[in-house]
Write a structure and sequence with these properties.
This protein has 332 residues and is mainly beta. 12% of the residues lie in helices and 36% in strands. The chain has five helices and 22 strands. The chain has helices at 31-41, 257-266, 283-287, 316-319, 321-331, and strands at 45-46, 55-56, 67-69, 76-78, 90-97, 101-106, 109-115, 122-128, 133-141, 144-152, 159-166, 177-178, 184-192, 205-212, 215-221, 235-237, 242-249, 251-252, 275-276, 294-300, 304-310, 312-313. The strands form seven sheets. The protein has a five-stranded antiparallel β-sheet with strand order 3-10-9-6-7, with no helix packed on it. A four-stranded antiparallel β-sheet has the order 11-13-17-15, with no helix packed on it. The chain has a four-stranded antiparallel β-sheet with strand order 16-14-20-21, with no helix packed on it. Strand 1 and strand 2 (55-56) form a beta hairpin. The two termini are 24 Å apart.
Length: 332
Amino acid sequence: LFDYYGEPSPYKWPMVSSSFGSIDLAGFPKAAAYWYRAWWMYNTTNSTSSSSEDKPYRPALLLDTDHKTAKEGFLVHLVQHWLEDVGGDTRTVQGYTNAPMAELMVNGESLGLVDVTWMGWAEWQNVKFASGNLTMLGFTSPTNMVASHTVYTPGEAKLIKLSIDVPSAATGTGDALVLDGQDTGLIRASILDSRGQVVNTASHNITFSIVSGPGRIIGVGNGDPSCHQPNKAPWRSAYHGLARVLVQVTKDSSTSRSHRRRLLEIDSEGGRYTQIIAPGENEERVRGIPEESIMVQGLVDGLGSDTISIALSSDLSHDGVLATAQRWMQQK
């Protein structure tokens, strides 16, 4: 399901990873992820439903918010970008949907409805490129539109935007990182044009830093299978306008008292790498105080900077992995 380092195929050097996955090395979904999502997840019933009738299983977001679903259980995703310099004057456009019919529109002009076969996709050939927007609509009947997806011809890069993919209620990963010395957040850096659209051709170098709070940068990525930049660094170039930074907590105030006592006994760095809160009489009082956050910054020469705050928690009973998963399933 995920790309991985080694076995570069079907291409060779300078590629350094496989390309078979539907999720890239940085955790960004590729087009195939939406085919699986449409046919494997939106067409799977939720056996945990409390009602007598099973409902379509609505999975967590695939780390984006640009898919407009009008009715439960349907998804539409355009495979191609709509770039002027990629694809020629006429092109083949493909899109994934579990709706039985689909329509393609270029700048509001319809290219007609096509039928979508079971476990298949929609395709339009000889589509003339026109700068603007490309929209795919999914239908259950010629008059009942159930989902849509639009891609745009991007403008010039104007700014950098940071967003949180993990932890995020939208992705089913909770509301906060747990202060256990290990929990890690996934921050997305996007290069945007003046309209707020991702510039798919952008490859700017992005420098990341921790402005404040108990956090450290433990890795970066961009999903490019031929990128040779270091993964353990505070910077990364964007690929298709995106980059990733992994931020880990540097404080342990939530694991068991016995665990922290043992860590204090064996911590040869004396808390320089991870601050271990010693169990004591004031522990309950400290836990009742709202936790600080981790402030992360992304900087691009010529485009400025952006910061984002990651919420923190010492409450494993609410924000731990198992508690978060149970809460997500109960919402289904």
